[in-house]
Amino acid sequence: MRVLQIDVNCKQGSTGKIVYDLYSYGNSHGAEMAVCYGRGPALREKNIYKFGLDGETYLHALLTRLTGRTGCYSFFSTRRLLRFIKRFRPDVIHLHELHAYFVDFKPLLRFIAENEIPVVWTFHCEFMYTGKCGYANDCMRFTENCGRCTELREYPKTLFFDRTAKMLDEKKRLLSKLQRLIVATPSKWLADRVKLSFLKDRRVELVYNGIDTTVFCPRNADALRNELKISREEKVILSVAPDIMSERKGGSFVLQLAERFRGERVKFVLVGVKNCAVPHADNVILIPPVSDQIRLAQFYSMADLFVICSHKENFPTTCLEAQCCGTSVCGFATGGTTETCIDGTENFVEFGDVGALADVLRKNLSELPDRTATASEAKNRFSYDTMSEKYFAFYRELLAKQEKDDRGDSSKL
pLDDT tier at 13 (50, 70, 90 boundaries)? Predict the structure, then answer.
């Protein structure tokens, strides 16, 4: 069985890690795996191909801002992708994210439909059933027709024109031609949202994201604590996100929480800060993005609690990583974030209620959950083996159905 995955990233970022884990799992279980991706460093591993051209990606982003259309450019990058697909001849294609300015998804989806290639498509956000939004928030126009968009300046950003109605119509036409399609979502929240869209009659399966639990597991963090000059008596509250100080990731709320703990033996550590000159209280430690996954696991293991204050999330991988390292999660109840928590929903409060979240943190710090039990349960639920086994069951099912249909066609000749 030959399986091709297509995503914006490979081996980095939340979806890129998932893609690489599936690639590794498949290769070790007798499948022939390939990954095509659009952005990030070029990887020199078998059948991993960066087809995206960086200069064209920047042009795509510019044209999106000027024209109001996205996912419609990157002509040369898309041609490189189609050439790879023709050479590799996949039995199944697993699609992930197709936004982020690296591919023209129209010729890609037309090619898949014309060649009747079975597709598993993991929706990591709402982009493919809305006019343009990665997260539609409270807007429900996507349930009928987009247009009159109030989020034009949100990612993917446009400066002048509202093309959301036309783009949604294009997506409806393109996806209607994919006859062998399984849509997967990492959270029930997102599955429920898909069922409100034009895809309401298509098959939607829930598959929790998985992570490498041989990397994200309880680790000795004494050296890291010494490096950061955090005493044994101090508790540590950790928050991790790419570009954590962005509005979406909510780093400003974490800084507000820290203000409420001034004078107490509590340190707040924020990992993923691009500009560490951000004003902050003396109980805050700002850390640039960490790419070394073992070091990142040491941060999770050092923390007493993990806090997530994102405004827009589907099924945040950071929460899985924290719990697999034995650290319980608290935060704002947005999107599918609460579904990541093995302790239930009592550790989550309404978005923006910093006072209530501070109370939750104090309660948990006074009686910390059992780290060993947290890590064990999280490993059982969120290992990449568990995730991969579900996806490979879909691949086999789609391939078996295609072979059955092909035999049926042959018998009619």
Answer: confident
The four Cα atoms 319, 321, 323, 325 give a dihedral, to 10 degrees, of: -150
Residue 95 has pLDDT above 80, yes or no: yes
Amino acid at 139: C
Write out the two tokens for 389: 């086994």
Query: What integer pLDDT is reported at residue 413 of this predicted model?
Result: 39
Please tell me the class of the 2-210+383-411 domain.
alpha beta
Task: Report the share of the chain in percent with pLDDT over 70.
Answer: 99
| Confidence band of 10 (pLDDT split at 50, 70, 90) | very high
Which pLDDT score, from 0 to 100, does residue 409 have? 61
DSSP label at residue 377:
H
- Give how far Cα 232 sits from Cα of 63, 285, 370, Å: 53, 16, 18
Coil, strand or helix at 3: strand
The string of DSSP codes covering 236-259 is EEEEE-TTTTSTTTTHHHHHHHHH
Q: How far is CA 105 from CA 4, 97, 366, in A?
A: 16, 10, 51
Q: Which of 152, 145, 148, 141 is nearest to 171 (CA)?
A: 145
Give the amino acid at 182. Answer: I
Q: Is the pLDDT of residue 150 over 50?
A: yes
Reference 126, options 64, 187, 61, 62; nearest CA is: 187
Give CATH 3.40.50.2000 domain extents, the chain.
Answer: 2-210+383-411, 222-382
Q: Are 74 and 60 in contact (CB under 8 A)?
A: yes
Please list, residue by residue across 337-361, b when 16 or more beta carbons sit within 10 angstroms of its beta carbon and e when fewer do. Answer: bbbbbbbeeebbbebeebeebbebb
Confirm if 50 and 43 have CB atoms less than 8 A apart: yes
Distance set, CA 218 to CA 21, 242, 322, 323, 367 (Å): 20, 22, 9, 9, 19
CATH code of 222-382, in short, is 3.40.50.2000
d(CA 121, CA 102): 17
| Number of C-beta neighbours around residue 144 at 10 A | 11
